[in-house]
Specification:
The complex is a heterodimer. By secondary structure, chain A is mainly alpha-helical. Chain A contains three helices and no strands. The longest helix of chain A has 21 residues. Chain A is flat and about 45 Å long. Chain B is an alpha/beta fold. In chain B, the strands form four sheets. In chain B, strands 1, 2, 10, 11, 12, 13 and 19 form a seven-stranded mixed beta sheet that branches. In chain B, strand 7 and strand 8 form a beta hairpin. Classes of the chains: A mainly alpha, B alpha/beta.
Chain lengths: 47, 500
């Protein structure tokens, strides 16, 4: 059970990495650009 | 004891709109403007007999303007004459292709079919989806969407908009390339992301449809762009609105966490029940209120916003008609180049060596802006350009920049420019910052993307300082003529709800 969970987690990680590198550079920059703002969203919502 | 019910800081579009509507509703309202005229970024100035528009060059999506006048029981046409511009723009593409886009969508499709037959189907899908979405957005512009509940209410009242939500999450470029494959057509549509001060790959996805808004009609107000805020001011003055010029507000006066008026540069205090700040939100919170009077999280929030890209503007007075065929002419770069302007140059403080440009030709729509037979042209070149120049500054660079810009205009637009050039004036990002109190000279205010728009943009009814309201490009849907007028309408609605 533990082993299969580990395998699934590894597969998900590998899938995410593959998906990330399949994106165009522009899309990756867009995601990073939005991602950097995420920590500020709760503050921004209440300003 | 207060001097006024409402003090509005700044007579830009958001300020005059909210001030005029509040005056109509019986509030004793005073607008304080640091300049000698109304309008802020949407203004017009006289330079040696030629009238130049400061920044904004046309108005599209007239619904918010109509709504603002409707709230005063008035009609736009009685105050502002809007001249339709046809064709809407002319394109000098990076590969040498030149074409002109007419307003009529079928005629525009015909143009696309000649340049990029492979894109006709995509263009038709783009226009079908885009025009439906833009039509619905137009109706929603003066409705607030600054909280989760407001946004949910709005979505429920416009269920047709739900299916377009994914476009809000995507980038301007993502939307463009989904429909259009030809690089020249892509660059023409993507160019418009700069109208919001952002590169195509980072701009808000729905702005990918901004090009279509122009097909609903673009207009130039007779008398220059200042005619719009002037019209709003005149309408407001009929209800007792007072506007004072050359009045620079230094501080917003506080009592605890409550705004109670303003302090002018000359030391005068004006007390009011509420304050509406129509200046950049960073200036409002960090300078006029001050970080010491704000919770740390609020300072963090305001600090976290990037400002939109500024761009220098060159104003030319000519003694002949320029060789142009539309109110707007644009020179585009391809998508990669457009993004490199941001990634490789702007972010590093370097002026991009390559460049698209934008020309507005106001005298094509209103010859009265220049002496008879003469013309005025606004030339946006070398921009969007960084405010903080690596190893240089705009005051020092200005003469060389002007010379360089004139050479480009001469070689790419008007070979006999020097025989006809009568006056030249330039506004650098530093000049814009000084004149308009906008940080870094960013005339579109704060950067506009999904996480810095609507409910994630500063709230029009401040949640940190009581009795403080905000209007203009820093709130709601960002910079632009219709959006800032819409912000003024929304802000006045909040005030009326709270005090009415």
């Amino acid at each position: 059970m533990k082993k299969s969970r580990k395998l699934m987690a590894l597969a998900a990680l590998a899938g995410s990495v593959a998906l990330w590198f399949s994106l165009s550079e522009s899309t990756r920059r867009y995601i990073v650009h939005l991602g950097k703002q995420v920590p500020y969203l709760p503050y921004r919502y209440f300003i | 004891m207060v001097d006024y019910d409402v003090v509005v800081i700044g007579a830009g579009l958001g300020g005059v709109t909210s001030g005029a509507i509040l005056a109509k509703n019986g509030f004793k309202t005073l607008i304080l403007e640091q300049a000698e005229v109304v309008g802020g970024c949407c203004s017009t100035f006289d330079y040696q007999g030629y009238k130049f528009d400061t920044g904004a060059s046309i108005v599209m999506i007239t619904q918010p303007l109509e709504e603002a006048f409707r709230r005063m029981g008035k009609e736009v046409r009685d105050y502002v004459e809007l001249v339709p511009c046809e064709p809407i723009y002319s394109v000098h593409a990076y590969d040498g292709t030149k074409f002109t886009i007419p307003t009529d969508i079928d005629d525009a499709t015909e143009v696309i079919s000649r340049i990029a037959p492979e894109d006709v189907e995509g263009w038709k899908r783009y226009t079908r989806i885009g025009l439906d979405m833009v039509g619905q957005l137009e109706q929603m512009m003066t409705t607030p969407m600054n909280t989760l509940s407001e946004t949910a209410r709005l979505e429920l009242s416009h269920p047709g908009m739900m299916k377009y939500f994914p476009y809000f999450l995507r980038s301007h470029q993502g939307v463009t390339v989904q429909f259009l494959k030809n690089p020249v057509i892509q660059s023409t549509v993507a160019f418009q992301s700069y109208y919001a001060g952002a590169p195509p790959e980072l701009g808000l996805g729905t702005l990918g449809f901004i090009a279509l808004c122009e097909h609903l009609g673009i207009y130039y107000p007779r008398g220059g762009m200042i005619a719009i805020p002037e019209g709003l001011r005149r309408a407001g003055e009929e209800f007792g609105l007072e506007v004072r010029f050359n009045q620079k507000v230094e501080k917003i006066l506080l009592e605890g966490n409550m705004a109670r008026g303003v302090l002018l540069e000359d030391g005068t205090e004006i007390l009011s029940r509420i304050v509406v700040a129509n200046v950049n939100a960073k200036v409002t919170y960090l300078k006029m209120i001050g970080p010491d009077n704000l919770p740390r999280w609020a300072v963090k929030a305001i600090d976290s916003y990037e400002v939109a890209m500024p761009c220098p503007m060159i104003y030319l007075g000519l003694d002949t008609s320029p060789p142009l065929d539309a109110h707007h002419t644009i020179k585009t770069g391809d998508l990669e180049q457009s993004n490199r302007v941001w990634n490789d140059y702007y972010k590093k403080g370097i002026r991009p060596p390559m460049g698209g440009w934008l020309i507005s030709w106001p005298t094509e729509s209103d010859p009265s802006l220049a002496p008879e037979g003469h013309h005025v042209v606004n030339f946006v070149w070398g921009g969007p350009a960084p405010y903080g120049l690596l190893g240089d500054n705009w005051d020092r660079l200005k003469p060389a920049f002007t010379e360089e810009a004139l050479k480009v205009f001469e070689s790419e637009v008007m070979p006999d420019l020097h025989d006809h050039l009568k006056v030249v004036e330039v506004s650098t990002p530093l000049d814009f910052e000084r004149r308009l109190l906008t940080p870094q000279g960013a005339i579109y205010g704060l950067f506009l993307d999904f996480f810095s728009s609507a409910m994630f943009r500063p709230h029009p009814r401040s949640r940190v300082v009581k009795n403080l309201y905000l209007a203009g490009a820093s709130v709601g849907l960002g910079g632009g003529v219709p959006t800032t007028i819409a912000s003024g309408v929304i802000t006045s609605d909040y005030v009326l709800k709270d005090l009415g």
